[in-house]
């Protein structure tokens, strides 16, 4: 199938009107009719769900020069078929929808972890849709690098690290360090040293107990070991890895060293014991990936980025986000998505850049990154854009770095250590409200909206207050309240009145962390109504869903299932008497504002219509309308017909996506979907 090459866009409105019925033959005296412009791509005999209330359904779609040329009946659209038109005859039941839009994730980070040569998987979440042992697609049922075998205890995690160390020692691995991804102590079951004896997660021995360096040194004192948490906010290192990072204030550091930019006193003390929080974790992950993986493997970065974006496309995305891009990452995206470049295969998705410089506490460095990215990319590439600047207000709830109004339900080392943290510990802000306000003003002055990451209720309050006090976002741009699990009804209503703000919710957290956060971290009252999507809809606050990958899986149909059912995962290895008070479904009408479940239709609007609005792209994306970008997903069935049986969403296959008129075939289209909740 040919990829449209021109970016020029003709006017199609008159053509579509003419296609609606057979026009009468002009009289002989009339001037000759202008030739019909033939479509480059046509989809026929489909259930077309436009998500456009004015014209909600159709049978067929025609595409020309990267945009939608016509939508209507088969008979009308067939008139646009020429000898060079690619025609897709939809199988019975096929549903065509607007391509799904990723409201926030870290696409490159997700792609880079999907590299079994350099990174080992120590996750209990099926982040990469690996087949389970017993599935015919799982060819090596004892290999967690290629089949999904969740870690259940700390011993499982350490066994995988030891296996890689043994490969290095025996010469079976040319890569002489151990990098592990998506470790999450909150989701681990009963292991060594649990207090009480039936404890799980943080009640047992983990790397997050104030002794990470000591524990990892016991595994190896010569091979560098770096373990990144699933939240992306905490990492763990042994002494050789710590030495390579050369962090200021840590013994042995030499000039120039890396100076922590967020709560530097606390972060430096934590680094000395092998725990890297907030910007130190971002620095550690980026340092090992860029210097020790990509630098020595020419061409690996673009290949991994392409393969990672293919996973997004295979789950329905046509636009993804790079949620914290520094200058180097921006340049890499510009290289692989430059118009007319032929060095790499066509990139399967469009990409929105969120600029961020984690290496500096000076927000002007982030602004410089955004301005340089805008100058490099320009504003006419439909596949690559600079969408916003980024700021972190705090960290992660399950990592105990979210900034709370009241103490955590439970607290564990190292956060109980008075020499490091003021007690009682309620988390620390990355940036306070006053600084957030200044950053918003800087962003708006230079034509950028701002994406503000916040998780704890104290940081949510500071972020919301900063937005309400700030000047309006640039015309057509929207600031984003990102994550905000504990946002209040009053805050939602205030932002809705503001009118230029989107709330983007990490809805999969309800499933993957509902139980651990209820049981260990926050308690039932602060968890049962987290991510109040229904309340946002009632108030008129535009709401979107995001995966924050590699935190959770990039799968909009799974997000729709979670938002509809609000089920929390009950891992069979995570069993404790104290978990009984935590509900399996996060709905409680006794706690205001009550049931936050929403319909499948509203969920799909969150990843189409509202996501396009969040980006200020509502005139280009989000619905299927004549003149908009030809960004579409073809599904094996209609998810909107599953309102009364949401578990049927597990059976819906993504057949292909169409990104700016370019057809991206899903090689797994005929296989049963791998459901992250299994």
CATH class of the domain at 300-396 and 434-453 and 464-623: Alpha Beta
CATH topology of the domain at 300-396 and 434-453 and 464-623: TIM Barrel
CATH superfamily of the domain at 300-396 and 434-453 and 464-623: Metal-dependent hydrolases
Number of helical segments with 4 or more residues: 21
The CATH architecture of the domain at 300-396 and 434-453 and 464-623 can be named as Alpha-Beta Barrel
Distance between the amino and carboxyl termini: 35 Å
Low-confidence stretches at least 5 residues in length (pLDDT < 50)?
Answer: 1-24
Largest sheet: number of strands, sense, barrel closure: 8 strands, parallel
Strand content: 15-25%
Q: What is the approximate shape?
A: globular
Q: Rounded to an integer, what's the Rg over CA atoms?
A: 25 Å
Structural class: alpha/beta
Mean pLDDT, nearest integer?
A: 93
Biggest sheet strand order reads: 8-14-15-16-17-18-19-20
How many beta-strand segments? 23
Helix content: 25-40%
Give a verbal description of the structure:
- This protein is of the alpha/beta class and 678 residues long.
- Among the domains are: 107-294, Diaminopimelate Epimerase, Chain A, domain 1 (Roll); 300-396 and 434-453 and 464-623, TIM Barrel.
- It has an 8-stranded parallel sheet. A 6-stranded mixed sheet has the order 3-2-7-21-22-23, with no helix packed on it.
- α14 links the parallel β18 (479-483) and β19 (501-505).
- α12 crosses α13 (457-469), α13 (457-469) runs parallel beside α14 (489-498) and α19 crosses α20 (600-606).
- The protein is globular.
- Mean pLDDT is 93; it is low at 1-24.
- It comes from Tahibacter soli.
- This is Amidohydrolase family protein.
- Keywords: Signal.
- Residues 369-664 form the Amidohydrolase domain.
- It holds the Pfam family Amidohydro_3.
